[in-house]
Amino acid sequence: MHVDGNASDSGTADRIAAAEAQLRAPATSDRLDAVQALADIGDETDGPSRQRCVEALCRYLRAACDGERRGDSDDRGTTEQRTDYCAHDREVRDTIVGVVAERVRPDAACSWSTSDFDFRGAWLGDADFSGAVFSGDVVFERATFSGDARFDAVMFCTGADFKDATFNGSARFEGASFGCFTRFSDATFGAEAWFERARFTGACFMDAKFSEAAWFGRTMFEQSGRFAHATFGAEADFSEAIFNEEVLFGAATFRGTADFHRARCIEARFDEAIFHADARFDRARFELEAWFDDAEFHGNSTFENIALPFASRFYGTDFGTARIVFDNPRQWGPCGPVFDWGSDGVGKPANVEPQNWPPAAMLPLQDPPWPGRSWPPPTA
After folding, report:
1. Following DSSP, what letter does each residue of 97-120 receive, concatenated?
2. Rounded-to-integer distance, Cα 343 and Cα 356, Å
């Protein structure tokens, strides 16, 4: 039964204060009891009282424990003072994550979805929030996920902030939905990152580092997608991704295969991007323009069947010595693209195909209509 959620209610406030104090106890069993007490109070109340319980649980996760994550200071004092009760508290942290995750899923007996969650600088082990719905603000800025992080099919109704977050295990956001502009800038992904079929209102991955494969296939960006200066250490899959506004990959580094097969973009910037391995842009479609000024291609790269209808630029592009293919474009102009060599192909590197320049366009263009907000795309 819910009671008055006003934290000024003396009985509720006293219970919360007692649980907060117990959450600082040296014994793990006492801290686990405190977590359960806060969960029970949060279930029984709403409004400010529930939010205070949420903040107490999040505060514990934000405590920087010696040997687990970098030692940021907070209201609990120095790292050394916190070591005694923070040592070996993986069970407590996992329990808190489980308590929160259970209560933000649609089938929760008591929903905490409208609460605000501040995981800023938090340390989490394996975190499974799959299927959760966050209607309030949720911040994971500078959070560290030491295990696997699962956010499959999560709904962030007001967006989320993962700026400078660290994912040591796999990061899974397949089918996730982000209601507002979301930051993953400066985030570090130590294992595979899965964003397939996710839907972003807009997202910033500037300076993000992907050590293993990054999967963005069939992902939709309603607004801008920013990947400038991002580093992809292995395969980067953006096949069939949809960018309804501009997408920025300026100065991005692709060390593995870069796959933009059948991607659709309104406007794309790849200025100064470096492709160390193969790159696939076959059947990609650019509605306005695509800039590859000063980009570098060091592997086999295909632009076969590409649609470049307006002013696209390849000024200063280094096509290296591997095979570069522009055969059978589905649309070539009428306003471009433009290269360092003449429109008749004079000065074109020998490794750029076709030899007869410019390539002859395949007409008519037989792509389905621009999908706009139709989502998710069919699986077939």
Report:
1. HHHHHHHTSTT-SS--TTS-EE-T
2. 11
CA distance 82 to 268: 48
Task: Report residue 169's pLDDT band, with 50, 70 and 90 as the boundaries.
Answer: very high
d(CA 109, CA 20): 24
Cβ contacts of 131 within 8 Å, gap of 6 or more: 105, 106, 152, 153, 154
- Cα separation, 46 vs 323, in Å, equals 63
Taking CA atoms, 283 is separated from 192, 239, 259, 265, in Å, by: 26, 10, 11, 12
| Total-model pTM | 0.88
CA angle 170–193–241, rounded 5-degree value: 155
| pLDDT score at 72 | 40
Of the candidates 76, 167, 70, 159, the one whose C-alpha atom is nearest the C-alpha of residue 124 is 167
CA angle 303, 337, 339 (to 5 degrees): 90
pLDDT score, position 262: 96
pLDDT > 70: percent of the chain: 86
According to DSSP, the residues that pair with 214 across neighbouring strands are 193, 236
Q: What pLDDT, on the 0 to 100 scale, is given for residue 74? A: 44
pLDDT exceeds 70 at position 111: yes
* Residues near 260 by beta carbon (within 8 Å), at least 6 away in sequence: 238, 239, 241, 279, 280, 281, 284
Who contacts 56 (Cβ-Cβ below 8 Å, separation ≥6)?
Answer: 16, 19, 20, 23, 38
267 touches 327 (CB < 8 A): no
